Amino acid sequence: MKKSIKKIFLLQFGFALAAIIPVCVHAQEPNFSQFFASPLSVNPALAGSSDADWRAISNIRRQWIGNISPYSTQTISIDGKLKSLENQSYFGIGGMLLSEKAMEGLYKSNFINLNASYHQALDDNGNGISVALGMVNNSTRVDLGGLTFDQQLSSTGFNQALPIAETNLGNSTSFTSATAGLLYTYDTEFSFLNVGISGYRFIKTKRSLLNDPTKKISPRYSAHADFGTAINELISANFSALHIIQDGMSITSLGAMMGIQHGEQSFEENKVRIFNLGLYYRLNDAITPYIGYVFNGFQFGLSYDVNASTSKTGSVNYKSVELSFLYKRYLPTYRRKIGRYNSPY
What we know:
Layout lengths: L1 H23 L29 E10 L1 E2 L4 E14 L5 E13 L4 E15 L6 E15 L10 E2 L2 E2 L13 E16 L3 E10 L19 E11 L4 E12 L2 E13 L11 E10 L3 E10 L2 E10 L8 E2 L2 E10 L16
Antiparallel strand pairs: 1-3, 1-18, 2-17, 3-4, 4-5, 5-6, 6-9, 7-8, 9-10, 10-11, 11-12, 12-13, 13-14, 14-15, 15-16, 16-18
């Protein structure tokens, strides 16, 4: 009986910490294993950079599968070319809504990200440099009525009618800050390359449920690269890498994807059928197999994180499942380039 009560106490107290800690310290923001399928969370300059006229993307991630409530992250984004110019330069625009949920909804956090980009072509093929500016707004809320602390523990379990003894704990916090990005694009008939750097939240703002003005959200900086090439008429390959730095911590992810076309051997948009197989590695953290399928303008992806860290996780199974859905809308006159038809961006 004592062991059962102790286990319940530790579990509930862990829930409380999981809700409070992310908004009281300089924490890392959500990161996707399929980062190549979440461009606006990587670099605002990727807004409008796709070979398509417009694209819409949704990502769903569930992590920490085990004896606690899963940590869920969902996004939906849309971006495209707002206005094309004569020399293949263009203005781009994009927006993303990101939502986090944990502890069966006791912890909720929502991000709204709006970006505007400009691409300056440096040659007749449209290759050049993109710059972008944007804003991000976050609102985080914790349902205090669902939390339990040791002061509420009795011989019959947790009595939620008792106070939690956290008089200074608020139930919501929010902030607004700025984003910026720089991107270089090189594109030929059979291959392409994207290299970029970005920064999120240049304006430090308070983010604390304890009303502590010293607790501020730190800027996040990213560097990324994506290279794709056509091996032959049926097979393509993509290589992607992402490095994130925030508050003295860093995350590095890299990997490759192979696309195998089947059916009619044509690059026309309404005839594209591709199987995608990939493998990605987040350094000292996780190995991520990936499988996907491209059907016309739709692209679907499924990945599964396998823990590759030496850190012990106790009762929590650090395995994550992630789904991505992408739709690209092309202009009727657009002719897809062979080297880019399987671009994850």
